[in-house]
Amino acid sequence: MALAAAQKVQETREVTRIERIGAHSHIRGLGLDDALDARQVSQGMVGQVAARRAAGIITEMIKEGKIAGRAILIAGHPGTGKTAIAMAMAQALGSDTPFTAMAGSEIFSLEMSKTEALTQAFRKSIGVRIKEETEIIEGEVVEIQIDRPASGTGAKVGKLTLKTTEMETVFDLGQKMIESLIKEKVQAGDIITIDKAAGKISKLGRSFTRARDYDAMASNTRFVQCPEGELQKRKEVVHTVSLHEIDVVNSRTQGFLALFSGDTGEIKSEIREQINAKVAEWRGEGKADIIPGVLFIDEVHMLDIECFSFLNRALESDLAPVLVVATNRGITRIRGTQYKSPHGIPIDMLDRLLIISTAPYEDKEIRQILKIRCEEEDVEMSDAALSILTRIGMESSLRYAIQLITTANLVCRKRKGTEVSVDDIKRVYSLFLDECRSTQFLKEYQQEFMFHEIGTEEGMETS
After folding, report:
1. Buried (b) or exposed (e) across 247-270, using 16+ Cβ within 10 A?
2. Residue 362 phi/psi, 5° resolution?
3. Strand 288-292 versus strand 157-163 pairing type
4. CA 137, 139, 141: angle at the middle one, nearest 5?
């Protein structure tokens, strides 16, 4: 009964993980061909051809790993896919390249100084690929013999016979190795590797010679060739960690556990200097490689003048990632000053930036984006309803139209329908106001609201 309940919980968790849909979960990459030309619709990306091609060139530059300390600004109207392009860059780079995303306002809510928060974000975006050689034993299991004491108590002893195409050896097993073999469910015919230093056993698969031992096999059964040469081999193992993780492990008394607790606190500059020197030494000896990653700061206009001054200096460091920032502001005040500048960014910082601009979507592109979002959210929608939703997206905003997909689908399901119709769209459109209609409502009834200010023309402040 308990086992059945546990299986049910596991199934529920897997379903939850699969069906979790985010704002950019439909994006799989930048949608470029081999010549870095953007396809009109590909990998979840639609339109913004020039911006995507520019982002593709930056992505190739990052993949080469030789250029660091460059900064890119993605600027455009709200809802033109700036964050989507950054997420597509993260997908295109893959899991090996560090990608750190944060909002400009985050650094003001952390329990540390602004410069420390930015320093940690920078060092999270720099990967260190550490290479080390380890001795392993790799071979096909011929026989496992485990002897249990007749009394039922005491340590188990046993023998393990491994072979390659050229040799065969018998190893004596201790208690821990026996437990590891039982845990991994190793049996005769399996190809295994044993890390001599750590004692870790990894099962690579079944030998091809045992392919016909059973009539039925599990779907995940993998067949591999019997290893050649000596049983004992030296193998190069590669670990990839970020500079921030090395900082935390060396600065806190609880070591790597601080990574899980999240309480990293402020890290002393002396520790960072020592780590930088050690990493430089490893690079000189060929033991490590530096992987310059990406730090993405959304809503960069929320940073103040001190943060921009720090970024100017940090980008000149040897250990600096590629900085990608995004903003939807025009000419506005620089936070912390009385001066105005384009995008709310100081002129000296703008001078360092390669600027990628995004343009408003056309109606065909909005229709295609809505179609992709319907597929992502598993919503069936009629052509007429999709046309109405496209028109709403053109007249109000794309984000508002996307949010109506799920609500219209819920209304459709309540009436036992299988396809979202025009009536469903009209119903949710009347229930949920967009920005324009909400503003009109406030203008008409502002006398009834508390703390209304009649005739004020002040723009929105950023501090």
Report:
1. bbbebbeeeeebeeeeebeebeee
2. -85, 170
3. unpaired
4. 120
314 three-state secondary structure: helix
User: What tokens does 154 get?
Assistant: 């005491």
Q: How many residues does the chain have?
A: 463
| Two structure tokens written together for 256 | 């790597």
Q: Which amino acid is at 310?
A: F
Whole-model pTM above 0.90?
Answer: no
Structural contact between residues 390 and 371, judged by C-beta atoms closer than 8 angstroms: no
DSSP letter (8 states) at residue 260: H
What distance in Å separates the CA atoms of residue 233 and residue 139, rounded to the nearest whole number?
A: 10
Amino acid of residue 197: A
In tens digits, the chain (463 residues) has pLDDT values of 444 544 444 444 444 344 456 777 778 888 888 888 888 888 878 888 888 898 888 888 888 766 667 899 999 888 888 888 888 888 888 877 888 889 988 888 777 888 888 988 999 988 888 887 788 888 888 888 888 777 767 677 888 888 888 888 888 888 888 888 888 888 888 888 888 777 788 888 888 777 766 655 666 677 888 888 888 888 777 778 888 888 888 876 555 555 555 556 778 888 888 888 888 888 888 888 888 888 999 999 999 999 999 999 888 887 888 899 999 998 999 988 899 999 999 998 999 899 999 988 888 989 998 998 888 888 899 999 999 999 998 888 888 998 899 899 999 988 888 899 999 999 999 999 888 888 888 888 877 777 666 554 444 444 4
The whole-angstrom separation of Cα 356 and Cα 342 is 14
Q: Name residue, tokens 């936070």.
A: 335
Distance of CA 445 to the CA centre of its chain: 45
